[in-house]
Amino acid sequence: MSLINITNLKVGYEGQPVLSDINLKIEAGDYLCIVGENGSGKSTLMKTILGLQAPISGKIEFSDGLAQTEIGYLPQQSDVQRDFPASVFEIVLSGCQSRLGRRFFYTKEHKAIAEENIKKLGIAKLKKRCYRELSGGQQQRVLLARALCATKRILLLDEPVAGLDPQVTEEMYELIKQLNDEGLTIIMISHDIANVQTYATKVFDVNKISPAGSAVLGGESLC
Fold first, then answer.
1. What SS3 state is found at 7?
2. H/E element holding 22?
3. How far is 50 from 90, CA to CA, in rounded Å?
4. Which of 13, 21, 40, 135 has a CB 3.0–4.6 Å from the CB of 213, allowing a cystine?
């Protein structure tokens, strides 16, 4: 079942393209990794899929009732964001913002969703801790729980293991794989080619876009 269809997409800034002729179909249950060199347009493509910036041309179509606001997103953190003075529960609960509609306050249902995802990510003991006091790995689990509050169908992850030590990196990959095995569709930006080849079901290399567009390699080596 196709969730996102991308056709002849051109993305960039102020009319200047970074990537062109992108044709990509994302199916329910995919674990898709977007790879490429620094500055090659990976994050620009992801932000365009999320609707955070408009495409220069082309189409992004969401099927089967999927809306952009129902996509969970784990962005890269800045130093300022890592030092954010809020509790773990407050950070996770903020992932329900897209569910508020015209309401101004979170409901019992929203708080229950946050509690559920805190338990799922194994951070229940950190619930009342201040976010900025946590380790890098703990912060990533908090942000992943936050992203899960926005969706039950698809997650977009931008370099989710950046700056983590090897053991925590492996734990994070296993956690993401578990979520995928449970039915969540994963789209992940990564520079970690070895683990991409281990976990991904599809790879989109932005440096290998052909004139015809598609650059999806189903389980093939990137080397």
1. strand
2. strand 16-27
3. 23
4. 21
**Residue 12, CA distances (Å) to 6, 50, 203, 209 in order:** 15, 14, 21, 15
Q: Cα–Cα distance between 221 and 218 in angstroms, integer?
A: 9
**Total of domains in the chain:** 2
One domain, residues 21 and 125: no
CA distance 99 to 96: 5
Q: 16 - beta bridge partners?
A: 13
Q: How far apart are CA 121 and CA 86, in angstroms?
A: 18
Is 73 among the domain residues? no
Q: Give the residue numbers spanning the domain of 96.
A: 84-152
CB 111 within 8 A of CB 135: no
Are 207 and 223 part of one and the same domain? yes
Which of 107, 130, 152 corresponds to the end of one domain? 152
26 with 129, same domain: the answer is no
CB 86 within 8 A of CB 130: yes
pLDDT recorded at residue 57: 93
Instruction: Tell me the backbone φ, ψ of residue 78, rounded to 5 degrees.
Output: -90, 170
| Same-domain status, 58 and 100 | no
pLDDT digits (tens, 9 = 90+) for 108-133: 999 999 999 999 999 999 999 999 99
pTM (predicted TM-score): 0.86
Residue 77 lies in a domain: no
